[in-house]
Amino acid sequence: MEFRILDPDDLAHMYAILSLFGRAFADPDSYESAQPDAAYLTRLLGGSGFLAVAALHDGRVVGGLAAYVLPKFEQARNELYIYDLAVDEPFRRQGVATGLMDTVRRVAAERGVWVIYVQADREDAPAIALYSKLGMREDVLHFDIRPHSS
User: Which of 82, 89, 116, 124 stands 20 to 30 A from 142 (CA)?
Assistant: First the structure.
């Protein structure tokens, strides 16, 4: 298994991760119906505010992680928010998610990230087990608030 930090030359892998997320989360509309164009993803992958990791098996994406670097205002430091992590069904329970997390932890340390955080749905026992072995659990509430025009 190869774990690769994606850069602007890895567009095919990024599109494969989007498709994987659509399948894994049973939400193809969000991840496949209006995918960003190549120029958008190139900028995203080339910037310092986004991080994507692909798990590759024989060159094929079988796992993916997408995260955002959040510069803090109260101190000169960054946090990393893992937005999505998924592993293709046949490759689950084989250490792929742990490998993705190990890779992002290494890169975060190299980039001076202060803390990594992630959310998990209460019903997602495998995700909770993975994140519990890696860090400290906090029970918080999450709210989606839609913007509106005045």
Answer: 89
What integer pLDDT is reported at residue 143 of this predicted model? 67
Write down the pLDDT at residue 125: 75
Question: Which residues have C-beta within 8 Å of that of residue 18, sequence separation ≥ 6?
Answer: 31, 32, 35
How far does CA 100 lie from the centroid of its chain?
A: 9
Q: Which residues of 73-94 are buried (b: 16+ CB within 10 A; e: fewer)?
A: eeeeebebebebbbbbeebeee
CATH class of 2-134: alpha beta
Please give the average per-residue pLDDT across 86-110, as a whole number: 94
Q: pLDDT tens digits, residue range 132-143?
A: 777 777 777 676
User: From residue 4, how far is each of 56, 63, 144, 148, 150 by CA, in Å?
Assistant: 8, 10, 31, 38, 43
Residue 72, both tokens: 């803090």
What residues does each domain of the chain span? 2-134
Q: What is the pTM of this model?
A: 0.86
